[in-house]
């Protein structure tokens, strides 16, 4: 019985690739040293899958930064600003596209579907000269083959690539990206021909855009592309892999009738309706790659339930045509449970990380072929049962409180303009008030120190950040969050129902990884979480000091969430815990409280039909947290990397007093929604410079951005701020950038005053 893995994490079990990349970027190690780390990682992953008995092992799912950027390199679609002159694309051009360099900004980064991974958005137009400029897919296939592992090379499919692209600067916004299909297919043909010559027998095209609501012309592009590739693909087994949701019925029919394709991969974890489509008609003689092992969570698979599903599929497609697979790439889960010696034993028995999921896939495939590992299955059944009955999972009081929320809308008593007036009387801020988003560079932990020394060192750090902001003349201050490890983990560690890993890292973008907490049970807040530090910080300054909280939806979307109750129920529980904290901060004299909902947008389901329900409970959860505060308490929220325009009404419905927005890489897209006449009466701070890049923007550049904003937003509601927290930036970068930001705000205040 055959087994398959869609893709595997690249960072390494102990984030080896992260450290190698950062060392290379800092000029501390050579390209050869970086390549060696990468080669070792790839080799160990292939060997691990091969040893586990996996038949279809992926190659080319490794990346130095991002798989979409790898495809851009393969197609030679380098934007002209990087001055690439042709030839094989090397690290210098590749990393300039990803991260920018001293003279030009990076390409835009955005969410990969509804995950917390980010990809680099291709910038295309009618004049792009495509050429085969990165032989990575072929090189990695050969590299695995030399190690004795015959792999399935994975390419991002041509249609998905184009659908995820955007028109480059200066290209009409309405430019039909799919019109470039005829220009990129010849390069795909070259790659395929080389793979075939190197001995590949299977090839996997990832086409996850097939799960979206597609228009008929987009769907036709798939038929066109694979019909066009058909002759080049002859002699190869072709798998088209989809993931993250169900396929709409029309899409399922289009996909399964593609002639040159012999295997279809479906996510059967998030795509429960796909099962019915398969049952109502799967083409005979084709392979079904059944994604029954969840690639996006850390829970152990319910093996007996999966086996039942697989057995019913076997009846439809035939024993020799069913392949057991993961629901998507394992990129979105943690790497290996073996590196968690401190994790609670009972909770650990409920989990499976990427390495364990490989074993689960293989165990299911063996069981289907009549070689069931009884010990493996019974240990799994035992763990499933213990999770269902564990008293650690259920808290009656929390269940009751969350159930009681159903009756109310949880809105503040007065409307936003009346609240802003009351707040201004109290805060007395200038026009175009300046602030930052929250975090400053974190000091390194200096080994084990006593609680007393720890508190002293954190207070010193806060005092340094407060002084710096006062010197810069920033209006609303932050304490810099030196006591926090991560904006979600910090709260999760103080809430019940959460568990934490030592090495459960997941790639977010480039070398940046996050370590999502695991929500295994009902959530509550035993005691105040941030009041001590916020009041300490407020006591150091006369200026308003923002209380800093992470919102319930972001805590939910950035955690591995329990899969035994609906997500919204867990979210309401978290909202109640944050509500307690907001009210305690207010009692302690904190007048500005920021509740970050950086990840509100990324929880948005992929299909439009499911948007309204999600947005309704997500926005409601946010309002629950602050519906009880006084009019004079100013509630801020912050959001990152978003395509706001389609959810602007939900954002207004959150009813925050001030919203700061990450938009500097999305190039003013955000402002277009206000140009189109959306009435927005609350305070708003679209980021005036990109903190993800080490570049320091000039005062003129920032003033220019603020002017663009003033063209569409009222003077009295505009705030001036960077677009995200500053914890990834050194003080030598932060200080001049903030100096220029404040100078730009003051310059414009003077201009506005004299214009009056």
Automatic annotation (TrEMBL):
Residues 432-746 form the Cobalamin-independent methionine synthase MetE C-terminal/archaeal domain. Its cofactor is Zn(2+). Zn(2+) 2 binds at residue 662. GO terms for molecular function: 5-methyltetrahydropteroyltriglutamate-homocysteine S-methyltransferase activity; methionine synthase activity; zinc ion binding. Keywords: Amino-acid biosynthesis, Metal-binding, Methionine biosynthesis, Methyltransferase, Transferase, Zinc. It catalyses: 5-methyltetrahydropteroyltri-L-glutamate + L-homocysteine = tetrahydropteroyltri-L-glutamate + L-methionine. NCBIfam families: met_syn_B12ind, PRK05222.1. Belongs to the vitamin-B12 independent methionine synthase family. This is 5-methyltetrahydropteroyltriglutamate--homocysteine S-methyltransferase.
């Amino acid at each position: 019985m055959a087994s398959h893995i869609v893709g595997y994490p690249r960072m390494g079990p102990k984030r080896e690739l992260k450290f190698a990349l950062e060392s290379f970027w800092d000029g501390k190690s050579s390209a050869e040293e970086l390549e060696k780390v990468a080669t070792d990682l790839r080799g160990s992953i292939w060997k691990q899958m091969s040893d586990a008995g996996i038949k279809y092992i992926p190659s080319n799912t490794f990346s130095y930064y991002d798989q979409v950027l790898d495809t851009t390199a393969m197609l030679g679609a380098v934007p002209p600003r990087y001055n690439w002159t042709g030839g094989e694309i090397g690290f210098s051009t590749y990393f300039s596209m990803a991260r920018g360099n001293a003279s030009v900004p990076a390409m835009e980064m955005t969410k990969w579907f509804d995950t917390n991974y980010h990809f680099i958005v291709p910038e295309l137009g009618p004049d792009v000269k495509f050429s085969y400029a990165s032989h990575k897919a072929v090189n990695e296939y050969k590299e695995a083959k030399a190690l004795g592992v015959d792999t399935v090379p994975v390419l991002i499919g041509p249609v998905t690539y184009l659908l995820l692209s955007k028109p480059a600067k200066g290209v009409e916004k309405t430019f039909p990206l799919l019109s470039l299909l005829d220009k990129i297919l010849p390069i795909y043909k070259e790659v395929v021909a080389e793979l075939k010559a190197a001995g590949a027998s299977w090839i996997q095209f990832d086409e996850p855009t097939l799960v979206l609501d597609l228009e008929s012309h987009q769907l036709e592009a798939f038929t066109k592309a694979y019909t066009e590739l058909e002759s080049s693909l002859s002699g190869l087994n072709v798998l088209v892999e989809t993931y993250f949701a169900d396929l709409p019925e029309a899409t399922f029919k289009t996909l399964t009738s593609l002639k040159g394709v012999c295997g279809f991969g479906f996510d059967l974890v998030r795509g429960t309706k796909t099962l019915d489509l398969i049952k109502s008609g799967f083409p005979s003689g084709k392979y079904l790659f059944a994604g029954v092992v969840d690639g996006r969570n850390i829970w152990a698979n319910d093996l007996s339930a999966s086996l039942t599903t697989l057995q019913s599929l076997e009846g439809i497609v035939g024993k020799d045509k069913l392949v057991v697979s993961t629901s998507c790439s394992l990129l979105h889960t943690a790497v290996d449970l073996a590196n968690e010696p401190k994790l609670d034993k009972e909770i650990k028995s409920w989990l499976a990380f990427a390495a364990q999921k490989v074993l689960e896939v293989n165990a299911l495939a063996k069981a289907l072929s009549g070689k069931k590992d009884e010990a493996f299955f019974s240990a799994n059944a035992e763990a499933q049962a213990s999770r269902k009955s564990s008293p650690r999972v259920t808290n009656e009081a929390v269940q009751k409180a969350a159930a009681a929320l159903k009756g109310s809308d949880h809105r503040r008593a007065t409307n936003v303009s009346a609240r802003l007036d009351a707040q201004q009387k109290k805060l007395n801020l200038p026009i175009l008030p300046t602030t930052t988003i929250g975090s400053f560079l974190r000091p390194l932990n200096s080994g084990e120190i006593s609680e007393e020394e720890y508190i002293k060192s954190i207070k010193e750090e806060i005092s340094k950040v407060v002084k710096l902001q006062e010197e810069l003349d920033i209006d609303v201050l932050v304490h810099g969050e030196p006591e926090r490890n991560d904006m979600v983990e910090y709260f999760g560690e103080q809430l019940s129902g959460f568990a934490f890993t030592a090495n459960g890292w997941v790639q977010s973008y480039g070398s940046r990884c996050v370590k999502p907490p695991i929500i295994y049970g009902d959530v509550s807040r035993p005691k105040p979480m941030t009041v001590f530090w916020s009041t300490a910080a407020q006591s150091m300054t006369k200026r308003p000091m923002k209380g800093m909280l992470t919102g319930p939806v972001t805590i939910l979307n950035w955690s591995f969430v329990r899969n035994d109750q609906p997500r919204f129920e867990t979210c309401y529980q978290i909202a109640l815990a944050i509500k307690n904290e907001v009210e305690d901060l207010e009692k302690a004299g904190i007048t500005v409280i920021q509740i970050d909902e950086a990840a509100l947008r990324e929880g948005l389901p992929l299909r439009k039909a499911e948007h309204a329900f999600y947005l309704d409970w997500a926005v409601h959860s946010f309002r629950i947290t602050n519906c009880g505060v006084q009019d004079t308490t100013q509630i801020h929220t912050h959001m990152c990397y978003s395509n706001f325009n389609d959810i602007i009404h939900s954002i207004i419905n959150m009813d925050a007093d001030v919203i700061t927005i990450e938009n500097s890489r999305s190039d003013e897209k955000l402002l277009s929604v206000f140009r189109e006449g959306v009435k927005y009466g609350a305070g708003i701070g679209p980021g005036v410079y990109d903190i993800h890049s080490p570049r320091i923007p000039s005062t003129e550049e920032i003033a220019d951005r603020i002017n663009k904003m003033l063209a569409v937003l009222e003077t009295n509601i505009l705030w001036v701020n960077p677009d995200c927290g500053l914890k990834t930036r050194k003080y030598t970068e932060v200080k001049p950038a903030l100096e220029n930001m404040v100078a730009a705000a003051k310059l414009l205040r003077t201009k506005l005053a004299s214009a009056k």
